[in-house]
Design goal:
The chain is α/β, with parallel strands linked by helices. The chain has a single domain, classed as Rossmann fold (3-Layer(aba) Sandwich), CATH 3.40.50. It has a 5-stranded parallel beta sheet, sandwiched between helices. α1 links the parallel β1 and β2. About 45% of the residues are buried.
């Protein structure tokens, strides 16, 4: 299964790149797309609705300020959605964190720390590893390497 990495703006690419790097290092196919919950809401809904059929297993979404991308994606897909609040503007990412984490019952978004794209990718690996022994083994090897 593939992982989608979605971001609200091209400006977010530098903060989202670690997610792509982690997925590449662990041999997981992924695609990167730029789409905005506010500027291109129809595109967001269409992508989310078609994601399962397109072979995606996890959707990672990063956005700043009024960070509604992950929520909009979760509202249109039953796939696991991981939100990355991005620090943009003057609040250090607090606004993005609250926008990402405060979801209504039944439409969850798993939220990682502000600007924590790498951890979002590691969470995606853990989710994929439930049904893919190869991914699970690579993640276990990585975690073993952290022990020094």
């Amino acid at each position: 299964m593939k992982v989608a990495i979605l971001m609200g703006s091209e400006k977010d690419m530098s903060k989202m790149q670690p997610a792509a790097d982690v997925l590449s290092q662990h041999g997981v196919e992924h695609e990167v797309h730029v789409m905005s919950a506010h500027r291109t809401p129809d595109r967001v809904a269409e992508f989310a609705k078609g994601a399962r059929g397109a072979g995606f297993g996890v959707l990672i979404c990063g956005a700043g300020k009024a960070a509604h991308l992950a929520g909009a994606v979760a509202a249109n897909s039953t796939l696991p959605v991981i939100g990355i609040p991005i620090a943009a503007g003057g609040m250090g990412g607090l606004d993005s964190m609250l926008s990402t984490v405060q979801m209504p019952t039944g439409i969850p978004v798993a939220t990682v720390a502000v600007d924590s794209a790498a951890n979002a990718a590691y969470l995606a690996l853990a989710i994929l590893g439930v049904s893919d022994e190869g991914v699970a083994a690579r993640l276990a090897d990585y975690r073993e390497s952290l022990k020094g």
